[in-house]
Specification:
Layout: E1 16-17, E2 22-23, E3 29-30, E4 33-34, H1 74-93, H2 100-107, H3 111-118, H4 121-144, H5 151-167, H6 174-182, H7 188-213, H8 223-243, H9 249-264, H10 267-273, H11 278-281
Antiparallel strand pairs: 1-2, 3-4
Helix pairs in contact: 1-4, 2-3, 4-5, 4-7, 5-7, 5-8, 6-7, 7-8, 8-9
């Protein structure tokens, strides 16, 4: 399927992942490279989305609506409720503030009941990382894939990212706070955080390359440099809005994005960014050899 999603040639048994963090046990995290199943074979470490849940785009939308998801079993419902509470604790206390005891107190469960779902504090932290990442994917990545390839998709990815961070001003972004907590602490939790952030950056780079292929961005643009600057805008937004409490931080980050586009976009791409019809703003694609 065209777009940002990496194709999956074979289903991975015993291993399901969102677009960065594999849904596997703690013992499978070794230097950021996950192992899948009992065979110990290394699976593709950074799959953007699970094969069982592909992204629906205008070109691939089914003729009929998909059936509603199955109801969760009681154990799954309990685990989901515990993870929701754990996300709230992590937002206010950080990942290091999570513990089986604190979560048992918040959820009014016994420690043994919480332990049965996670097994260890480390597995609890990694599960929270996965859950946060799944929500980020659903709110930012998946909806943006419905936008046309090129600058419209890149703009929507960044705008949704900005909205996500702006709603987390009071609680804090787990991407950012987790980096502060685990930047110099190697281990499975850090590996999980690094994996999801790197996969998100690769997704952005792919969107930048597609925009260049569509003729919306300059052909000689360095995608990694543009992603670096976009990430810098998000960090500045989080710092000024959360730490300094500057009321105009949201407007500044959007103006910063427009300045980047003015520098990187082609005339056709800039016209598209300003609201020109796609057919009128489209530049010829670069011929592929």
């Amino acid at each position: 399927m065209p777009g940002l999603l990496a194709p999956i040639k074979k289903p991975l048994k015993n291993c399901v992942s969102n677009f960065s963090v594999p849904r596997i046990g703690v013992n499978a995290y070794k230097i950021g490279v996950p192992r899948c199943g009992k065979s110990g074979k290394i699976a593709r470490p950074f799959v953007l989305l699970p094969a069982a849940r592909p992204v629906t785009t205008p070109d691939t939308a089914p003729a009929s609506a998909a059936p509603p998801p199955r109801a969760l079993h009681k154990g799954q419902q309990t685990r989901a409720a515990i993870l929701d509470a754990a996300l709230g604790l992590a937002a206010s206390m950080g990942l290091e503030g999570l513990s089986i005891g604190a979560l048992a107190e918040v959820t009014h469960m016994s420690k043994s009941g919480v332990f049965a779902h996670f097994g260890s504090r480390e597995e609890l932290q990694i599960s929270v990382v996965r859950e946060y990442h799944a929500k980020f994917e659903e709110e930012v990545f998946v909806p943006a894939m419905r936008e046309p390839r090129g600058l419209p998709r890149l703009k929507d990815l960044f705008e949704r990212w900005v909205r996500r961070v702006s709603t987390e001003i009071d609680s804090g972004c787990l991407y950012i706070s987790g980096a502060v907590e685990f930047d110099d602490r190697p281990g499975p939790v850090r590996d999980a955080l690094v994996s999801m952030v790197q996969a998100w950056q690769r997704a952005l780079e792919r969107a930048v390359r597609q925009a260049a292929e569509e003729g919306h961005l300059k052909a000689d643009l360095d995608p990694a440099q543009l992603v670096f600057e976009l990430h810098g805008l998000i960090l500045a937004l989080h710092h000024d809005a959360r730490f300094l409490r500057h009321p105009g931080a949201l407007q500044r980050v959007r103006r910063g994005f427009e300045r980047l586009l003015a520098d990187c976009a082609t005339p056709a791409g800039f016209a598209l960014a300003q609201g020109a019809p796609r057919c009128a703003a489209r530049a010829p694609r670069k011929a592929r050899g």
